[in-house]
Write a structure and sequence with these properties.
Keywords: Cell membrane, Membrane, Sugar transport, Transmembrane, Transmembrane helix, Transport. This protein has one domain: ABC transporter involved in vitamin B12 uptake, BtuC, CATH 1.10.3470. Helices cover 77% and strands 3% of the residues. The chain has 14 helices and 4 strands. The protein is globular, with a radius of gyration of 22 Å. The two termini are 41 Å apart.
Length: 340
C-alpha cells in the first residue's frame, strides 16, 4: 500500500473522530465559540492598539466587571433550570442604596452586609415561591420582583448616597500587584463566587438536580429528586448574588443610587447566553458565563479605546446574541434528532 492510498483513510479517520467529538461534546460548542471570540477580540485589539493587552488594562477587565460576573453566576443556575430572573439588576440597586443608607445612619459594615444579602435572598425567595407553588411563569414572577426591588430602592432614597465607610471602600481601593498585574478584593470575591458555583454545579447533588430539572422536570420528579426545593433555592441564590453584586457595585462606585442597574439584567443574561447556557435549560457552565462577561467587557473597553459611540456596544452584543441563539437552536434540534 502506498502513501497515496493511506491519505483517504487518514482523512476519513479524522472526519470520523471530529464527528464523534461533536456528538459527544455538542453542549460545549457555544462555550468554545465564546472562547474563540474572546481570543480573536484580544488579538484584534492588540493589532489595533499596542497597549490594549497591558497587564493593567487586562486586570481592569475583572475590576470593572466583578459585579456583572456575580450576577451572571446566579442567572446561570436559574437559566439551567429553564427559568429566568429579570429582577437581578433592581435587586442590585436596592441592596446598594440600602447599604449606603444604613451606613450613613451609623450601622457597622459587618451588620449591613448580611442585611443586604438577606434582602436579596427574600426577593429571590418570593420569586421562587411564585414560580414553584403558584405556577407563575418565571418571566412574570421575576418581572414582579424587578418592580418590587426597584420600588424599594426609591423608598430608601430618591437620590445618591455617598459611602464613606472604610471597610466597604477597602474592597475596591485595595490592590495587590505583581509585575504590573493587580487584583482587588472585589475581583477576588467574584472569582470565589465562580469557583464555589463551579464546584456546586459539578460535584454536588444539588448541582446534578439543577441540570436534571433543566433537562426534564418530569423525569427529575420520577427519579425522586427534590425539584420543588431546588427550583426555589436557585432563585434564592440568584437573589443573594444580586445582593452581593450590590455590595461590589457600591464599593466600585463609592455610592448607592436607586437608578443603578437599569438594564443590567439584560447584560447579565446576554453574558450567560454568550457563555453557552441554553435558554431552554439543561445545559450551561458557570465558567462559560465568566467567559461571556469577559467578552462583554472586552467589547465595551475596545469601543472605549476607539472613541466610538456606546450605542455600538448594544449593536455588537445584539448581533452576538443572535448568532449564539441560532447555534443553540441547532444544538437542540440535533439533540432531538439523536433522541428519536
Amino acid at each position: 500500500m502506498t502513501a497515496l492510498d493511506t491519505r483517504p483513510e487518514r482523512a476519513e479517520s479524522f472526519a470520523s473522530r471530529y464527528s464523534t467529538f461533536l456528538r459527544r461534546h455538542a453542549s460545549l460548542m457555544p462555550t468554545l465559540s465564546a472562547v474563540v471570540i474572546l481570543i480573536v477580540l484580544l488579538i484584534g485589539a492588540r493589532v489595533r492598539f499596542a497597549n490594549f493587552l497591558s497587564p493593567g488594562n487586562l486586570s481592569a477587565l475583572l475590576l470593572d466587571n466583578a459585579y456583572l460576573i456575580v450576577l451572571a453566576v446566579g442567572l446561570t443556575l436559574v437559566i439551567i433550570t429553564g427559568g429566568i430572573d429579570l429582577s437581578v439588576g433592581s435587586v442590585m440597586a436596592f441592596t446598594g442604596i440600602l447599604c449606603a443608607s444604613l451606613l450613613a445612619q451609623g450601622l457597622p459594615a459587618f451588620l449591613v452586609i448580611p442585611i443586604m444579602l438577606a434582602g436579596g435572598a427574600l426577593i429571590g425567595l418570593l420569586i421562587g415561591v411564585l414560580v414553584q407553588y403558584f405556577n407563575v411563569q418565571p418571566f412574570i414572577a421575576s418581572l414582579a420582583g424587578l418592580f418590587l426591588a426597584r420600588g424599594l430602592a426609591f423608598v430608601v432614597s430618591l437620590s445618591s448616597i455617598r459611602v464613606e465607610d472604610p471597610a466597604i471602600l477597602w474592597l475596591q481601593r485595595t490592590r495587590w500587584s505583581v509585575g504590573g498585574w493587580y487584583i482587588t478584593p472585589t475581583g477576588i470575591i467574584a472569582l470565589l463566587v465562580v469557583a464555589i458555583a463551579f464546584f456546586v454545579m459539578h460535584w454536588t447533588r444539588f448541582g446534578r438536580t439543577v441540570y436534571a430539572i433543566g433537562g426534564s422536570e418530569q423525569s427529575a420528579r420520577l427519579m425522586g429528586l427534590d425539584v420543588a426545593r431546588t427550583k426555589v433555592l436557585v432563585y434564592v441564590i440568584s437573589g443573594v448574588c444580586g445582593g452581593l453584586a450590590g455590595l461590589l457595585l457600591t464599593a466600585y462606585s463609592g455610592a448607592g443610587y436607586p437608578r443603578n442597574g437599569i438594564g443590567t439584567e439584560l447584560d447579565a443574561i446576554a453574558a450567560v447566553v454568550i457563555g453557552g447556557t441554553l435558554l431552554t435549560g439543561g445545559t450551561g457552565y458557570v465558567l462559560g458565563s465568566l467567559i461571556g462577561v469577559l467578552v462583554y467587557g472586552t467589547i465595551k473597553k475596545l469601543i472605549s479605546f476607539m472613541g466610538a459611540e456606546q450605542s455600538w456596544m448594544q449593536i455588537i452584543i445584539g448581533a452576538l446574541l443572535l448568532v449564539f441563539i441560532v447555534v443553540q437552536r441547532l444544538i437542540v434540534a440535533r439533540s432531538q434528532r439523536r433522541g428519536r
